[in-house]
Amino acid sequence: MTAQPLYPLTLRLAGRDVLVVGGGPVAARRASGLIVADAIVTVVAPEVCAELADLIRSGAVTWVDRGYRAGDLDGKWLVHTATGDSRVDAAVRADAEESRVWCVDASDHDASAAWVPAVTRRHGVTIGVAAGGDPRRAMAVRDAVAAGIDDGTVAPFAAVPAPADRPRRADFPAGTVALVGGGPGDPDLITVRGRDLLAQADVVVADRLGPRTLLAGLSDRVTVIDVGKLPGHHPVPQDEINAILVRYAQAGHRVLRLKGGDPYVLGRGGEELEFCREAGVPVQVVPGVTSAISAPAVAGIPVTHRGVAAGFTVVTGHDQLADLPGGRDHTVVLLMGVSGLARSAATLADGARGDDCPVAIIEDAYGPGERVTVGTLAGICRQAAELGVRSPAVVVVGDVVRLGHHAHQHDSQLQPALTDHLTKGL
Fold first, then answer.
1. Catalytic pick among 76, 202, 226, 229
2. Rounded distance, CA 266 to CA 376, Å?
3. Which among 123, 226, 348, 412 counts the fewest CB atoms within 10 Å?
4. Helix or strand run (H / E) with residue 421
5. Which of 209, 263, 272, 288 is nearest to 237 (CA)?
6. pLDDT tens-digit profile of 259-317?
7. CATH, domain range 292-425
8. What CA–CA distances, in Å, run from 280 to 163, 177, 233, 249?
9. Where are the chain's structural domains?
10. What CA–CA distance (Å, rounded) separates 260 from 271?
11. Is 229 a catalytic residue?
């Protein structure tokens, strides 16, 4: 069969609804890539693999727990199907064709209307290779081009000086790694030391939720490797991230791992440090401002306050909630907690906190989509659904919510209770 001509295209999917049909590792990889592109991702599958389960728990994707049905494509811009069942994939493909929705079919590249290229990034350049739908060939070509850029044999990168040709800082020498906490995303909230080291790096391995606007100001000589959005759901697996850090450091580069928040607060910084040390690569850690504290601060909510809350706990999963100490005087901060909000709210309401315990959800703190929603454990899920709350978001549970700027705007019942509580505390 004669190969059909193709039209290469790059899509801007930020804020657009896309669908992934299937719950296996291929579907997880496709979902991760869509998340990095800021798409609004829905996964339809009766079962999901561990990687997708992480994405669902984090709130990065919405999971519809069933098989594919006609009508699932309504309102979607793009669909990826990777069920492993050719009949289901063919049905999705046919519905997409009828609905004029672009469909990527992982099971049949010949019949697919669109393909996902093998992608990497070097020096601000995105390299995408399709190779006629052959993924192994595409990855081989991609890696060959990337290697040529790295060693300067591919123009116009031949003039890029080797790391040894550049000035060195005594505290960030060649062949070392710096794990830098970038804070919650605002470029002004990275530490002075973190920003200084960033300016000295040869290679930057970046998460999505750090201060990414700072990357645009880096020299063209710096290699920026984009490895994803949030801890636990990277398009590049964690073991590969670890290998990248070591590989570039052992090649004589100054490698900076730019992470959102703080490397040691649910950021897998400890794993990366351990891997580098085991490989004999020196590592330094630069703390960062964690979103667990800074996101509530945007809304005027302190995680502790004299007479209101003397301690707080930061968690990501649902399973830990039943064993948390204290009542509403012990603040609970949920990171990546949007997708599991219903279960989390029910568990916390069943304990000492009660269903009238105040809750705040802070979306996209310090970002253009910053929004604060305040309610109680009994009603927060309904509010979140009505408002379309989505990740990234931090959920705060406890009486400290009543101290926030937005409490009176969202639930007038919180204010009298706050007065009573503070009066009792005094």
1. 229
2. 26
3. 412
4. helix 414-425
5. 272
6. 999 999 988 899 999 999 999 999 999 999 999 999 999 999 999 999 999 999 999 86
7. 3.30.950.10
8. 19, 11, 27, 10
9. 17-116, 161-279, 292-425
10. 15
11. yes
According to CATH, the superfamily of the domain at 17-116 is: NAD(P)-binding Rossmann-like Domain (3.40.50.720)
Residues 105, 108, 111, 116, CA torsion sign: positive
Paired strand residues for 64 = 44
The two tokens of residue 196 are: 């200084």
Rounded CA-CA distance 305/297 in Å is: 12
* 214-243: pLDDT as tens digits: 887 787 678 888 886 443 444 678 888 999
Please state which CATH number belongs to domain 161-279.
3.40.1010.10
Tokens representing 42? 């829905």
Global pTM? 0.60
Instruction: Give the number of other CB atoms < 10 A from CB of residue 284.
Output: 15
207 classed as catalytic = yes
List 72, 95, 207, 262, catalytic entry: 207
The secondary structure of 169-213 as a DSSP string is: BTTB-TTEEEEEE-BSS-GGGS-HHHHHHHHH-SEEEE-SSS-GG
